[in-house]
TrEMBL record:
Belongs to the AB hydrolase superfamily. GO terms for cellular component: membrane. The lineage of its organism: Eukaryota, Metazoa, Ecdysozoa, Arthropoda, Hexapoda. The keyword Hydrolase applies. Residues 44-300 form the AB hydrolase-1 domain. Keywords: Hydrolase. InterPro entries: AB_hydrolase_1, AB_hydrolase_fold, AB_hydrolase_sf. It comes from the Eukaryota. GO terms for molecular function: hydrolase activity. This is AB hydrolase-1 domain-containing protein.
Amino acid sequence: MTSKSEGEEHKHNEQHEQEPMEVRIDMPWGYVVGRWYGNRQVRPILALHGWLDNLGTWDKLLPLLPKHLGVLCIDLPGHGYSSKLPEGIAYHFVDYLCVILRVMEEYGWQKVSLMAHSMSAMLCFIFASLYPHRTDLLVSIDIVKTRYRKPASHIDYLRNNIEGYMVEDERFANAKRQEPPAYTYSELEQVLHKGSEYSVELKNCHHILERNISRSTKFPAKYFFSRDGRCKYYTEFHTSPPFAAELARTIKNVPYCVIKGSESNFIDEQSDEVIGILRENNPHFELHEVQGTHHVHLNNADGVAAIINPFIMHHRPPLLETWTVDEADESLPEVVKDFKLAVEDSENVKRRKRKSNL
């Protein structure tokens, strides 16, 4: 006969080891889909991918993160398996910002923990500055602030963006009648590898491609990109240096960890002022550099996990009633092992007290 405590421990272990749950969250224009990995008994970390990527970007990092928190990864609108916006509607930075709020509303979260890469790291910088009281943790991969272009180049950007969107919107309309160009899988790997400016290693391209392509109905051995091409020309949220500085000043007490890829220039001298303000005003701000490209979390997951895990354990530690540790797991981070030993010592003291009262 299994004791109640043994049964509860088995139940907790099952919760952490269970297969990811596919989720679908209704939106006014359709739906956003995602996967909920790990523990479903407590509020998870909401993970957001970069520009033209999808939730597959987290495949290699997720197994290395602490087990007491689940991670809800979503495909942003127009990416992966989430709905595309209707024909004639352009994508805007604010659309993605609203997705965070709608997910929070769907699950009844008063606060949110965020993990974001690239475009979504910019998105979460804005979110945390607007809603610092609702952000209890933020991990940003290889971007710390929104982009700024000088006026002359910004004019060119706007013109090219509008014209590019018009072309892609026509392609989107035609795609209902005519299949997009198809390629072999190896050709698509090369397209993604080169298109990311070699940031995504060739061996890791399949993590992104899985949710970004569909099999051709005309050429059985070929595939085509199924993500919304209009996302290439989404309207960014640009901030002048004074505005970015003011936004940074509002993020005062938010645990904020930024990880820079050593081979990437996405965090450069233009970020120095914002980083300086965050360091001065926010006692919970951290900046680390890890060997790797812009997709450092995908190519060097071990290096990134070594930074993220202590950060998570410090700012969102385990709750005893919702978390157990598999004693046979030798791959646990040292901070988790130390916490496990502290829990066991505490339980041993309680047992001795119970026995002394018998």
